[in-house]
Amino acid sequence: MREEGYASITTRRLGAKAGVHPQLVHYYFSGMDDLFLELWRRFTNHYLARQAQAFVSPNPVRTVWEHDSELQDASLLAELMALAGHREALRDEITTSVERFRAMQASALSPAMDDLGLKEVFGSPEVLALCMVGLARVLAVEERLGISSGHAQARAAMARWLDQLESKSRPDAKRRTPQASKT
Q1: Residues whose CB falls within 8 Å of the CB of residue 9, separated by 6 or more in sequence, listed in order
Q2: Which of 17, 57, 104, 122 could form a disulfide with 128 if both were Cys (CB 3.0 to 4.6 A apart)?
Q3: pTM for this structure?
Q4: Residue predicted with more confidence, 153 or 172
Q5: 45-49 long-range CB contacts below 8 Å, 24 or more apart?
């Protein structure tokens, strides 16, 4: 799915990739919806484990950004969300999960909103989370399409803003340099 998109997924191709007969895929999954739901659930478990780090991070704003801007995860998420437009069961599962993710992000970001004076700009931690996640997803989708205009500048601006927030919250803290592969 990451390589060629959701439309390329067939039981025949999955079987070939896994080195098993396509009927074995049908044995474990009654249909493609079940297979996509299991993929979403595995993605969700991985994502929730990573998001939990934001709760204990000394810098939850940066942690949320880094997790959501990891290109591979954002690209898979974009594929699954696009697929959900055609699969009701997956759409319902994604809606429930994303609402839960957003609540976790808001909970992690809420203390930082107060400490860093971000309420004036964003109003609520949900808005801050949505802005960061939205930018990360746009970058991932566009980069997957080969679009790069403004991307380096947006990532650099986000890195500068995160550095400013870190220095504001801990004036003696060393500035982090963004890693090109993650930010």
Answers
A1: 1, 32, 35
A2: 122
A3: 0.76
A4: 153
A5: 46/73, 47/73, 47/101, 48/100, 48/101, 48/104
